[in-house]
Amino acid sequence: MLFFSFFKTLIDHEVTVELKNDIQIRGTLKSVDQYLNIKLDDISVVEELKYPHLSAVKNVFIRGSVVRYVHLPANAVDIPLLEDATRREASNNAGKAK
Amino acid sequence: MSFFGFDTSRHNPTAAGFSQAHNPFAGLSNNDNEGDALEFEETYDGLGDQLDETDDAFNDDTFGGGDSSAPAPVGKDFDFFGQTAKVANVIEEEHVLFSRQQPAPRATQPVAQAPPQPSAATSSYNYAPQPSYKPARSGYEKYKEEPVGELQVDAALWGVAPKKHAAPAAPAQPAPATSAPPGRKMMSLEEIEAQMRAQAQKKPAQAAAPSPAPPPQVQQQQMHYDQGYHLQQPVQPVQPMQPQVLPQVLPQVLPQVLPQISHAQVKEPSYHPGHGHPVTILQRPQSKHTPPAQPAVQPALQPVVQQRPQPAAAPIQPTQILQNPNRLSGDAAKLGIPSHPTPPMMQPAQPAHPTHRSQGSFSRQPHMITHPSQLAQLSDEEKAAYLEQEAKRAKRNHKIFLMSRDNGLMTPQDKNFITRIQLQQLVSATGNPNEHGTDESLSEDFYYQVLTQIQGGQRQHPSQPLNNFAQTYLFQTGSRQGGMRRHNRGPENHMQRMEQQVQRAVEAAKNKPKNKQLVIEGSLGKISFSNAKTPKPLLNIKRTESTGEVNRPGSAHRVTQPVNGTDKKSALRSIEKVYTILMNMEDHDRTMPPPPANESDAEAVQNFIAWSNEAQLLNTKLWEALRIHDQTHHGNVHPFISFLSYGKGKKAMQRIFRHTTQEQRTTVLTLIVVNLDNLDVVRGAQVTNGDTRLDAAMRENVELFSVAVMSTLFNFMNELELDLVAGVLGIVCTRNVDVIARSRIGASMLTMILSRAEIIKHSQGGSEQSWRSWEITYTQFFNLLEPTLPHIFPGTVNTGEDIYVWQLLAAIGIGASPDQQQRLVLAVKDRVMDTVALAKTLPPDMAAQRLQNVNLFMRSIGLDVELLQ
User: Fold this and answer.
1) Cα of B774 to nearest chain A Cα, Å
2) Chain B: residue nearest A77 by CA?
3) Edge-to-edge, what's the strand order for the sheet holding A60-62?
4) By the 8 A CB rule, do A54 and A45 touch?
5) Residue to test with chain B: of A2, A6, A7, A9, most B Cβ within 10 A
6) For a FRET experiment, which of A55, B4, B300, B757 has its CA 20 to 30 Å from that of B826?
7) Phi, psi of B522 (to 5 degrees)
């Protein structure tokens, strides 16, 4: 749930989602679910000339499994907290595994 | 032998009975036993031999032509077979369905009577009762009788007015045909099709035409139906009145077929009560539905409805029960069947408008045209208007029909069930709304919860987006109607039940054993579950104890490579341990009970003591984990110092200081100062006159140290007393002051110590004694530092990274004696002059910056750069 928890905090921030087919979509993160499906609003494709068919698209729903990277807004991430959250997640999982 | 010379031996005992499945080949297989399947002699009825074909004597009689009289429209009277065939189809259909569903002996009875009828009737015609005349087998009969209905989905099942029932209704009208089939018994496929087509087109006209009074036989059959199906319906006395024909045929045959069908398809949710159908049929807008047909239909409708106000409820209820096996009939009655798409005709107030849908259209209708004669009296305009309205009505009805196609597909229970599933998903995805803010949800959703708390106020409630939704559903509605739980058993109650069920579901999900796989007996595979919190694992790697860390190829020789005396891995692990303890302590802090208000509250005192003990325990654990008191072996770096050489170790400092006592903090500070020249950020970041370039990693390291550690120490130092500060400075003097001063961190540390002493002096703190010891320590320190002073500047004058040195010099100068100040100036004179010279070549703002840095030092010894210019 760490990633879900993390991405929830990025809602209403601008992110760039890089898909596994190399398309990069920049837009405002509107929603994310536990599968890390992503809803973006006001999108623009980074290499618009290469993907003209997306130039008319205003918002997208991206299935989580097709996402390669999400470029984060660095100032929206609390790194120490994220580190702690990661530790907690790890200890939770370790507790579950045992 | 038989009556009329019937060859009873030719009766095929193996042929499919009515209670059996239709098998067109049943007869043929029997024939095969006898040898020939089809003989011409058998199929030829021999009528051709009897024909007198020599002249056209009776052609005019037959075809109506010949004379000059106007050609009368050829009626359909002769088309006996077509009618029979259609009726036969319907009968066959019914029987297949009926026998399949309900093999009651009485039910088969009326049907069994049907087949003999044609043959019996045959005898009434004057065909010779010779066996040869009777076409024994054509080989096509069975195909002709194929129950077509099986292949077509009856739309009535879904509560849609069936178009196709309009067709059977019509053939029933010229019912006498049933008893009088023509001699020709075979029809080719083309003929049948043509017949059907003609039928469809002529039907409206036919409906208008006066049809002959039904012969007793039809009525007889009708009554059999009634009895056979056990409908509590008074059997109508046979009335040979004209309009009565339709009522008889329509409401009785058809509706009874319909419940039958729904019996057959119990699982199909169908809301339509049987008698809804005749009405819907009648109002069904057919494309050829011309006004003349209307009057014929209209009177038919009303008698039907009026005839049966009583039994209406009875047939409905059973069908409903069958449709919704879960629903008690009593329950249904109590609920008043609120969501029923077509309410049953329980309201005797409107017998003429049995269904919702027909109400709108029909209520207007009768006022306008109730009889064909009325239409005839209308003017052309009125007629056109009427037709137009009729078309509109038809269109509208069709639209309603299309829209209502799926009406009642789901029962309220079904809908509730779906909602429940959805809510359950929602709850399992977001956690129980009650749990938010608790430890459990915090561990699952830590980052989000804490960050939203930190950022605070952006969102009103951290668990806003999804939970509110669930809460709205679960709790608001529940409380809103909590009071009327007893009285109201209406649909509102569903919400309450659902709420309880969701809570139970959540409980069950929590208590569910950790069985992640389901193995269905007899199946080859496993079904593994997944939910939002524990997604289905794609890889399931079992890590056995033996393959833990020892067997990993990489770690094997890393263990043998100690980094700074301890291997990196164990250092990192000890850091992680510290972090874990820190997090535990923070969690523990969160659960701090309020300090007991007074001594008498034993429980509160008890709680507080327990909490304090626990806190103390954690503190001890942390202290041990930090390994402050570990002895350093010769040549090895202290574990805590190596701890500080890692980024996350540095970052932990602030939190460590938050959870340690003053005494512990002092110990930490002392330890750091003792090892100051051993710190990587000091030893590895020495400045030389020539090259100040540190590699990026070290720069980052230094930066991080000054942000994470130095700021912490600075805050701590600002609370220290003078003797402690003097003690710290004394420790510095025991170390390699040259190394310390030639690093940025070391210089900053010195600045920190010296400036603290200066601040204490300004606030008149410190005792005489401690001041005296401070003076001694300072002098010692100055003597140690003096030779290094010219070399502590990083880089050349041009680099401009020397502000921290000027700060140090200022700190030294302000506490120095005049003699020491003199020596100080001498030591750094060159750098001062160079900087002032450089400032003259620089743009004004940059020059001012440089001069200001120098002035920091100059002012501390009572000078100013202005004097030098």
Assistant:
1) 40
2) B451
3) A60-62, A38-45, A24-32, A14-19, A67-71
4) yes
5) A9
6) B757
7) 85, -10
Q: Do A91 and B580 touch (CB under 8 A)?
A: yes
Token pair 């004058």: residue: B797
Under DSSP, the state recorded for B474 is I
- Judged by CB atoms closer than 8 Å, whether chains meet at B443 and A6 is answered as no
A chain contacts of residue B446, beta-carbon cutoff 8 Å: 2, 5, 84-85, 88-89
Chain A residue numbers touching B451 (CB-CB < 8 A): 9, 78, 81
Please tell me the distance from the alpha carbon of residue A89 to that of residue A78, in angstroms, as a whole number: 16
Give the pLDDT of residue A14.
94
Tokens 């003990």 label which residue?
A: B613
- Assess contact for B835 and B797: CB atoms under 8 A: yes
Which residue in the block uniquely carries the two structure tokens 């003999």? B116
Residue of chain B whose alpha carbon sits nearest to that of A8? B448
Annotate B648-670 with DSSP letters as a single string: HHHHHHHHHHHTS-HHHHHHHHH
What residue ranges in B502-563 does DSSP mark as E strands? 517-518, 527-528
Per-residue confidence (pLDDT) for residue A42, from 0 to 100: 94
What predicted TM-score, i.e. pTM, was given to this entire model?
Answer: 0.49
Token pair in block for residue B285: 């807008």
Phi, psi (degrees; rounded to nearest 5) at B528: -100, 140
Q: At what angle do helices B446-455 and A2-9 cross, to 10 degrees?
A: 20
pLDDT greater at residue B504 or residue A59? A59
d(CA A27, CA B193): 63
Interface of B with A (CB under 8 A): 429, 443-452, 454, 465, 532-535, 576, 579-580, 583, 648, 651
Residue B282 and residue B394: Cα distance in Å, rounded?
A: 11
| Mean pLDDT calculated for residue range B140-146 | 51
Query: What's the whole-number mean pLDDT along residues B439-453?
Result: 76
Question: How many residue pairs from chains A and B have C-beta atoms closer than 8 A?
Answer: 58
* Strand, helix or coil for residue A14: strand
Best of B425, B435, B436, B447 to disrupt the A interface by mutation (most A CBs within 10 Å)? B447
ipTM: 0.87
Closest partner residue to A1 among B445, B580, B648, by Cβ? B445
What is the Cα–Cα distance from B185 to B45, expressed in whole angstroms? 10
Q: What share of chain B is helix, strand, coil (3-state, %, to 5)?
A: 65, 0, 35
A93 Cβ under 8 Å from any chain B Cβ: no
Q: Do B532 and A1 touch (CB under 8 A)?
A: yes
- So what's the pLDDT on residue B767? 81
| Separation of alpha carbons B366 and B698, rounded Å | 98
The mean predicted confidence, pLDDT, of chain B is: 65
